[in-house]
Amino acid sequence: MKPFFFGSTDRQLFGAFHAADEDAPRRDAAVLLCYPWMAEYNMTHWAFRKLAASLAREGFPTLRFDYGGTGDSMGSAESADVTQWPSDIVTAGKELLELSGLATLTLVGKGLGATLAVAASKELPVRELVLWDPVVAGGDYVAELDRIDAHQRLFRLYPPAPAPGTRDELLGFAVPRSQRQALTAVELVRHTPKLSGALTLVASSPSAGFTKAVEHFKGQGLRASLVEAIEDVDEAAAAGQSALLSAKPLAAITQAVQQGERS
Amino acid sequence: MIERVLSFGAHADQVGILSLPDPLPQDDRPALVLWNVGVNHRVGPFRVYVDLARKAASLGFVVLRFDASGMGDSEVRREALSDVDRENRDVMDALDVVTRRTGKTRFIIVGFCSSVDAAHRVSVLDERVVGVVHVEGYSFPTDGYRKRVPLKLLSAERWRRLLWNQRQKLGKRLRGEAVGGAGAPSVFKRDYPTWPKFTGDVAALTKRGVQLHLAYVGSDTTFNHAEQFFEMFGSPELDRTKVDIAYYPTSDHTFFGVQDRTQLIDRLTGWMTQRFVGGA
What we know:
A: Rossmann fold; 8-stranded mixed sheet; two-stranded antiparallel sheet; B: 8-stranded mixed sheet; 8 strands
């Protein structure tokens, strides 16, 4: 694994490149992993490291990276701008194409990262999209974050927060109100994905929103499918105290990436 | 401030981010070294280590944030070592690489929650350590602590949480579900030093000239007033001038609030500057 910085000097991004195993079959697409945000980002780090290593062993050059203002990338949390992250995905995708010497990409995203990957697919030569528990509707997503935030504040002995949307903080992270508005506006089906292969939505918990989104994408003429990889609820992970291990979703994602290569 | 990715260790498979002041002050101020807090990789909970590293670098300190072996992006060590030896070796290797890259030979190391264990051990073992920070480290219940425990009854937040928990339990009983968990998983259990061992170590550290900055919170801990740390010592050997206690009565264990983390970082970097810059 090669950790490195890339991007422009004023928007330096951190990436971890997993070169394909030399003994594995040659593949046509490299895989770009797009992280979720906030507590989900930290919890997913280990799962993405495992997934990237596993895909590299299967012959897929794989890059995971941090958006501007998150993880090791430059920028403060206060300056993090959700609306810029699709551009970061495009920058990372181009970097991966250059590193791998391949001409096509598979984008794999988790949570908000999955939804942003759909938007970014228009700007990249994408073959497959694998969406792991994507954010379907930004308004519902923010409402759920507010609910978890209220519980976390109670659990951690903080006084109740003022009314949602009246402060620049959410779940322990600086989230300026402009970002809250941008998050609320996020919608999975707003963008028509541009891809030459299939779209797979991997669900680790059942959701009518996932089913509807897949039907919507099918209606757009895409080869879209829903794969349910239902996991037992890990209460420690749900409370942000543990890493997501996610064996079933990771197996489903690996299979979806491999199927793309065969189709 | 410039940041560089470092791959180090015997097989160059340990990963860290070096934050370098630009320009690098030509004095003997120590470098700051941080590593994983619980399951978090080198960015720390709520990215606090990134913010801390960049603030410290802006004040002229070299900072390394790294992943201990088998954590974050670092590979598992290939040598057969006990957990304790592995953790110690990880930190000492990190100090070595900072020396090789920057020439720094004096260090401040930071333990936060679980990483306090290694920070404390290495500070005792390695004389390159001239400053040690424990965030939510060891505390023991003194008489002063016990006297203040009833004050918890005055906390509206504790009553809110208690009532919420009771409502949850009642709901579970009404639904016929099991109430109560199996307790904390064994992975969260740690071997604390005994009270005499810890205070003896701290006294020895101060005698060696090591500066200590110890941050405690008031939420679910066995610490409830700043003076409690000194109450833990029966020994006259402790040099109090070497110890800085920062008590955050309304913060939680991982400094969930943005403002809490700002205070933590400001206080900590202020201590670093006061104690280690300009021959202080």
